[in-house]
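Readers of this paper often ask what the protein records in our data store actually look like. Such a record has a labelled line for the sequence and another for the backbone structure tokens. Nothing more is needed to write down the fold, since each code stands for a local backbone conformation. The remainder of this section carries one protein's record, kept here as part of the documentation.
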Amino acid sequence: MNSPSLVSILAVSVMLSACSDNDQASVKYGPEPTLPEQQRGLLPNMTIAEPALWGDQLPTVPQNYRITAIATDLKIPRQTLLLPNGDILVAEGRGGNASKLKPKDVIAGYIKAQGNTSVKGGNRLTLLRDSDNDGTYEEQVVFAEDLNAPYGLALVGNKLYVANQDALVRFDYQEGQTRASGPPVKVTDLPSEINHHWTKPLAASTDGRYLYVGIGSNSNITERGMEAEVDRAMIWQIDAETGAHKPYATGVRNPTALTIQPGTNRLWAVANERDELGQDLVPDYLTSVREGGFYGWPYSYWGQNVDPRVRPQNPAKVAEAIAPDYALGAHVAALGVDFSSESMGVDFADGVFVGEHGSWNRKDPVGYKVVFVPFSNGRPSGEPVDFVSGFRGEDGKTRGRPVGVTVDPRGALIIADDLSNTVWRVTPTQ
């Protein structure tokens, strides 16, 4: 019997490796991802998101959909809010003031900064109006200014709530107005010391009684000590009238967008997980949020997977940790989420859209797109589907980075792009 040749052995090895890669790819997403071994090094893999202009190019959308830029030259658009008359509010700004802890933080910060816009944040809300409902937003006016890195937005009756990086505030609002009638009123302070993760996403309960605010951690994995993490890495429930608040869910490292599932009062979130355990750990995720639930940070991830870097360890808390509902993939940087409606077409009617800002700490970049996660019986089911892509081109250049996503039930998806400073609108053509 002849011995196999070296070429044959190599060929089989390549085939097995490809199968392994495919198997791994098939479980990067969904309720039960396969988690690889932890990998730790001096520095994570880093790839600069080199910015480039769109020129005559556009993001890619599915057949029978079109995409248009409805607002340009903004000042770092983050999240959007659809108002009852069809106007769109855009929160613009840049926050955070965390000092670098280690030399590698300086290096990583430089790398990340190369993929961000050089425009100064507006610290304002801009209103977009399409007066004749033809899909062109002729009016673009400043609704409110002199805010402090506004991010989350919610409308409850005639009260417009804005989550700045340091406080939840509200404006009086009357349908059709294009300018705030006065300065905002503070509802409650929000944790803002250091503000490593400064974004404060916001959602209102179905009855408007409560507001939910996401508050990210002040570190990757408690490098600043647990005293810096008081009231952080959690979602607050706030009484809309009084400002009284309490932790609603904890152990969520960086909740970046919140939404309420239609027909229920169920809160959902997307969250960004920890870094420096390898380019395939830890998955960012989409999850329903249980009141009183603990989601692992900093002691564990994806349920009871222990993070050995944390000192001291806490086995009791690890035992409590809830595994999220759905893995989106490691380091996609999910920053936006909203439930779809039938108006978005039969293939995208039941599920959520997720804005993925894109990785910086991977050799092979991921994210840089808007995906659709299909639902069945009220829960995620199946792999994510690319809905808007092309923000990062085959040339390695990055022309946009999606953040907030908002579904217009009349048949449109609104996307804030904080690299090209554009708001995009995607609509079915049929």
